Amino acid sequence: MTIYLPTLKQLQYLVALKDHVHFGRAAEACFVSQSTLSAGLRDLESLIDVTLVERTRRVVRFTPLGDRIAEKARRILREAEELADMARAAGSPLAGDLRMGVIPTIAPFLLPALLPGLRREWPELKLFLREETSHAACDSLHRGQVDCVLLALPYACGDVEAAELFEDRLFLAFPAGPDEPPARITPAAIDEDKLLLLEDGHCLKDHALAACNRPELRAEATMLGTSLHTLVQMVDNGLGVTLVPEMALSAGILSGTDVLARPLQADHAARRIALVWRRGSPREKEFRLLADALRVAHGDRQARAA
């Protein structure tokens, strides 16, 4: 008896449609024409003799069975990728494609200083970066859309392994005034009516609130900022104060402003920067090599700054 199995290409088409819920965008993501993707999905449905997707002129709707098969297909594709990763890792480490997620409160401040060194040390590495909030980055990791994530801990990212890189202290940023500010700021000195934080979805907001250990700040804080740069501009215009990580200060986020920054004096006034990946990944040795390289690059950056 001949058994016809779905091809990986057909499963890729199915997962892409599940992710994009649009034939045109799914086809673009797979680098094929819309007709090719549509035909591939029809062939898949004929092969397994079930309807996976209900098609109308305006709506793409997965059937309940289609939902389950799409998630199973996602796992199969991830296993297939890991099989290829296993073979590649046995050859030359940190060579070929590597997809890394990075959160917005790390990417613009750390990567410009670290990437040149990585390119020199691992010239065969092709690093593709995807900037997302912590929740989205962890979701992309478990969906197999990225291989690892540069993340700030503590953060619940699911079943992952982590290599901690360094601590990133938190500072209070405030407008310059006539009085000399104290060398360090305690959480008790922060006026909740003037505190500006990032919008929900940015883990730095949770790290800042945890460092302050003042539950009322969560309800009282004016959470308007979409980015650290936006918050700094708001502080420079006298709209309040905010908490900024040390890496952003080192990268010059206060340049061109009259904003001052002082260390926050608290028990947990730092976040831990780490590289995380799916537990059991066959590329674990590569990720640990990458973490080592990032630590060295960060140390060199600090030495140059000093």
TrEMBL record:
GO terms for cellular component: protein-DNA complex. SUPFAM superfamilies: Periplasmic binding protein-like II (SSF53850), Winged helix' DNA-binding domain (SSF46785). Residues 6-63 form the HTH lysR-type domain. Pfam families: HTH_1 (PF00126), LysR_substrate (PF03466). The keyword Iron does not apply. Signal peptide: none annotated. GO terms for molecular function: DNA binding; DNA-binding transcription factor activity. Keywords: DNA-binding, Transcription, Transcription regulation. Gene3D superfamilies: Periplasmic binding protein-like II, Winged helix-like DNA-binding domain superfamily/Winged helix DNA-binding domain. InterPro entries: LysR_HTH_N, LysR_subst-bd, WH-like_DNA-bd_sf, WH_DNA-bd_sf. The keyword Membrane does not apply. Belongs to the LysR transcriptional regulatory family. This is Transcriptional regulator.
